[in-house]
Amino acid sequence: MLRNEVNEWVVALEERYLADLTFQEVSRALRALSSTYVERRRKLAAGAALAGAGKRAAFALFYAPLHYILVERITSSLHAAPDARLLVDLGCGTGAAGAAWAAAAGSFRRVVGIDRSRWALDEAARTYRRFGLKAETRVGDVSALGLPAERAALIASFTLNELENDQRRRLLTRFIDGARAGHSVLIVEPIARSVTGWWNEWQDAFESAGGRADEWRFAADLPPLVAKLDRAAGLDHRELTGRSLWLDGSRTTPGAARGSSS
After folding, report:
1. Cβ distance 139 to 115 under 8 Å?
2. Which of 112, 196, 201, 212 has the smallest count of CB within 10 Å of its CB?
């Protein structure tokens, strides 16, 4: 069941964004944004997903809540509560994934959100505050990640598929090295293999290091506005899907089995 805090967050977003845009304008922008994700993915690296007020509103009002709900369900199902007080939200967008993991784990004392978009970072700061998190945001390139000095949990949600192959490979090495140093790493990506052709390499590396890979399908319980936008844009999110890689560097068990949940 959807928590009240999530519904209240979406209502606050609705009041803010629909003060300047109509519902019809946002739903049209959502159709264009969805097309960018599905058919024009090469434009993502250039910031096409957040180009214009309508697309930014559609992302904040629709995709951010979907990402929050999915990540909260995944982290709850994984019992992902690492022995860390710092959470680093890589490619944080509007902060939905980091806020979701923090809500599910209940153990993080500080969140750092990193993104190249200043608009996204402003939204992330609002999201973290909304969920009562002590947080800071930084403009940064995820592919140039430097591991924190203190033990941390790292999440990259719907981020790696937008990087170039060489950038991903560098990150994979850093993540595995980081897990050996005691950091924990959670990767969440779309379930479609068409946008995650690199997944097998990452899965092999995570499992060899003692982590696990999962595919997820959850019945969707959407806030009213998100469900209304879903219908208006001709989408169908009766089911939320995703795939994840999880490696808890503080509690790694060599040879952990691959899991699958539905």
Report:
1. yes
2. 201
